[in-house]
């Protein structure tokens, strides 16, 4: 699959490049990114370089599609559609650099990826999943605001370099209204 660039009112989503290595390296020093995403710990320059080199190969394979989120040309995070299975399913994943959190950037980027994921001239997906380590309230709040429906707990399902954790799972169907829904883990 050829890489696709997505644009929103404020953002450009495009392949990460060698020019992004320093920004990726800096962002991935964040304790939250290291705790809640599957990045290596400690995160070193070689990891950022390897990530940037791998993304085009993943696009070619059509299974894991990652974009750099850019605001005014500067990388502020990454987002992707992962585990694309060719049967109408994918999984959204993302992180934002600590200095770029808030102000709705992530929701803006995620809506663009979701729109493209469901579009007939995009991935033509039926279902997009979201998963997060139990306790990642910031990610859960974003997913709920995007209209994802909470579906439950995945026991010991999520692993990164240091942890194996229970995970929350939610999903959005192409036919769902993209309005916030009640989530028991957030609403009480």
From TrEMBL:
InterPro entries: Acyl_CoA_acyltransferase (IPR016181), GNAT_dom (IPR000182), Ribosomal_N-acetyltransferase (IPR051908). Residues 11-175 form the N-acetyltransferase domain. It comes from the Bacteria. PANTHER family: ACETYLTRANSFERASE, RIBOSOMAL-PROTEIN-SERINE ACETYLTRANSFERASE. This is GNAT family N-acetyltransferase.
